[in-house]
Amino acid sequence: MDPKLKAANRRTGLILLSIALVFFFGAIGAKLLGSPVASIGVLGTAVLLFLVLAIGRHLRK
Amino acid sequence: MSSVPHDQVAGGHEHGHDEHAHHPTGIMRWITTTNHKDIGTLYLWFSFVMFIVGGIMALTIRAELFKPGLQIVDPEFFNSMTTLHGLVMIFGALMPGAVGFANWMIPLQVGAPDMAFARMNNWSFWLLPFAATLLVSSLFMPGGAPGTGWTIYPPLSIENGMGMDLTIFAIHIMGASSIMGSINIITTILNLRAPGMTLLKMPLFCWAWLITAYLLIAVMPVLAGAVTMLLTDRHFGTSFFNAAGGGDPVLFQHIFWFFGHPEVYIIILPAFGIISEIIPTFSRKPLFGYASMVYALSAIAILSFIVWAHHMFTTGLPAASILFYMYATMLIAVPTGVKVFNWLATMWKGSISLEAPMLFALGFLFLFTVGGFTGLILAIQPVDVQFQDTYYVVAHFHYVMVAGTLFAFFGGTYYWLPKWTGHMYDEKLADWHFWGSFIFFNVAFFPMHFLGMAGMPRRIPDYALQFADWNMVSTIGAFGFGLSQLLFLYVVVKTIRGGEKAAAKPWEGGLTLEWTVPSPAPYHTFETPPVVK
């Protein structure tokens, strides 16, 4: 595989993995924050933004 | 445009197919393989084995419920069966099945030589048998498997025996496998598409999986976080969900359903993708409203994140929250309706033929819509309060999961079996499989609506005499449905072993890239990417 493509794959993979880790620790951290409704709301908003950005930025490619 | 007509593909199938490439043979081929087709095959067989395991558990449940009173298993074992049946079917059968289709078809449909991370792909799969073994072996632990139901709500899940720990670890491992699989799928789709294949030229199956993979990455870690907290509550003295220590059991429900509702769409969206491939092919027309299908998929995915508390209408939510979740849930009917409308419009004035894939697609369309409508009914909070934890809910989600996802998987298997094996399947037996599944599915699950409306609670091994008749009917249907699946196994094995040779494009209406390569698909495909004009 072309090294540039390999690097791009690795970059994409790492970004996605970091998002998964944010959600994992976010779920636990949200509980530690206190108010469940607020923290899950924040997490939900993050998910929405993530979906919109993640899909939206590639639409024209 | 949902697909790429052959005349728009430069090169066709001269593009680098190494038909007789050397690769390991025997068991080592399957253990060490990094080939997307091999791994897809492994996923699909694993999924089928787990489907049989989960099915046997379902039949144990139905056998116990054949008549009132306790006759076959004790109540604790019955509870373990309901828990493991749910977990095995969701994490062992349906999700790996969808990933199997993704592994086989996404590289072929986007013109990629393989998945982006081939070694990780191998690892993603081989985690699953270990996780499944952990999960099922919880049955043999002191105290047996968890009796909590698949939702593993505390406080019961905090108090359950060692089987619960094994279940938690199994969920962790299956979650890790799903996340790795999703990273692979997203990276493959975003980075390895053939030149000229813009996102809005991608087959809808790939779109459905792209969105599903994003959902998985967002919600599987949340479930992993929830079960990690459960584990620390059980063994490390924390009180996240333990009310005795100041924790909040209802919070677990919020976090669980924040995962659990998108999970429903994780299971159904790949099925939507498969159906969106089958219907145009057998209607001999391009998919109606391709762009609106993509936007509908995205809308369903986004809405799936803001409706989780409709699973918790009886937990005492504030009135404003109830209204919000009620209306947001109803809103999902709009993009789902768009999809159903577009599938019907694709068939409208099409030259339809009713081979097995199309029969399953039509069965899906009809029965999934029934499941969707009962979902709408359950979205109405005052009604939901009556139906909460009754057989009406069991009927609803089996119409979505079985008649929805499983029928799409059967249809997808028949659709792509010629490409996978190089042989045509036995159409007559496949039709029998469809009719057996369709009739017995309805015999098994439609009466559950009546039982639920009459007030029969779910997850109980015994029940009042008034529910006896419909339970008997339902059990007969369940066993008939189970037997029908043996026919499926026979048809698949028969096709693998031989039969009429399949052409590269066995379905004249097939327009996507996989039909440009020979059948069976060579071990290596698209080493030189095709150019899509």
Protein model, in words:
The complex is a heterodimer of chains A (61) and B (533). Chain A is mostly helical and 61 residues long. Helix content of chain A is 85%, strand content 0%. The two termini of chain A are 21 Å apart. By secondary structure, chain B is mostly helical. Chain B has helices spanning 26-32, 36-64, 75-110, 118-137, 156-159, 162-191, 204-235, 249-283, 290-303, 319-331, 333-347, 356-379, 381-387, 391-421, 427-453, 468-497; strands spanning 9-10, 531-532. In chain B, helix 2 (36-64) packs antiparallel against helix 3 (75-110). The relative contact order of chain B is 0.13. Classes of the chains: A mainly alpha (61), B mainly alpha (533). Chains A and B meet through helix 1 and helix 2 of A and helix 6, helix 7, helix 8 and helix 9 of B.
Counting helices, strands and paired strands, the structural category of chain A is mainly alpha
Please report the two chains with the greatest interface, counting residues with C-beta closer than 8 angstroms to the partner's C-beta. A-B, 33 and 39 residues
Order of strands, widest sheet of chain B: 1-2
Structural class assignment of chain B: mainly alpha
**Share of residues in helices of chain A:** over 70%
Mean pLDDT across all amino acids of chain B? 93
Individual helix count of chain B: 16
H and E order of chain A? HH
Order of helices and strands of chain B: EHHHHHHHHHHHHHHHHE
The number of strands of chain B is 2
Largest sheet of chain B: 2 strands, antiparallel
What's the overall geometry of chain B? globular
Strand content of chain A: under 5%
The radius of gyration of chain B is 23 Å
Main sheet characteristics of chain A = none
The total beta strand count of chain A reads: 0
Quick recap:
The complex is a heterodimer of chains A (61) and B (533). Chain A has 61 residues and is mostly helical.
